[in-house]
């Protein structure tokens, strides 16, 4: 029994000693007193008293353990509450951070959504603007095409009218060419008829002067007839090539006067074309000058040369020269007071083309005429 009590006390002290909660001094004293009494009564073998103090001892120990237990539970609860609060604080902080992140993400999404919306609106407005411009350009192009079509129709109508007028003009020009050609042909034929009549008339004349006058008139008409013949034969009905005309006029006069090889002709005629208003006077002047030289410069069977030159001076004047190496004019000759038909005819024709005539004696006769190009 004594050993059992000692074991119980040892276990009790050991439990109290190993508790982490400090024991109050009064409780410690009480436990020490109870322990001494238990040992004392156990020694005296008063086990009932020892058991009594053992129960008190156990009661105090249980009270101490209960307090310790309550304190442990309180400490654990406090620790639990602290940990719980820490966890709740961390959770709240985490939730706050999460909310902040979500809010930031939402703000970012809102910002991006606004930017996307602005971009979308801008794109839509740009597309609408481009569509409006395209539609406007289409309308303008359509209107321009319509105007161009109307203008093209008007141009086509004008072209058709011009083409019709051109055809009419070509027809009229052809008719005019034929008419002019016919006129020149008829004038030439009529002059030839007159020349033939004069030739027939001269056959019935016994007066030498009258026959000579008729012959001179024939030569003059022939010079005009040659011009109309050239106009009739040439492609241009308005211009006469003076080189060809002079050559034919010289051949005609050579045949008329039957000069043969006795009198030579030297021609230096430029490639000059004259209209009929100037060609006729020049033709008559050439006829008179050559005829006078053939008749008066070379008497009997004299041999000589007649030179004819027509050239352009500085593009403004034309110069005609008819020269011979014959007898020349008498010393008392004055062109201003001479009243012969041939001289008066040359002066009149020269005046008609606004020209100036001069005659000089220098180893023969020099006749010079200058007149404007046009």
From TrEMBL:
Keywords: ATP-binding, Coiled coil, Kinase, Membrane, Nucleotide-binding, Phosphoprotein, Signal, Transferase, Transmembrane, Transmembrane helix. InterPro entries: HATPase_C_sf, HATPase_dom, His_kinase_dom, Sig_transdc_His_kin_sub2_dim/P. It is an enzyme of class 2 (transferase). Its EC number is 2.7.13.3. It comes from the Bacteria. It catalyses: ATP + protein L-histidine = ADP + protein N-phospho-L-histidine. Residues 141-182 form a coiled coil. The keyword Membrane applies. The keyword Ribonucleoprotein does not apply. PROSITE patterns: HIS_KIN. The chain crosses the membrane at residues 119-138. SUPFAM superfamilies: ATPase domain of HSP90 chaperone/DNA topoisomerase II/histidine kinase. Residues 182-374 form the Histidine kinase domain. Residues 1-19 form the signal peptide. Gene3D superfamilies: Histidine kinase-like ATPase, C-terminal domain, PAS domain. This is histidine kinase.
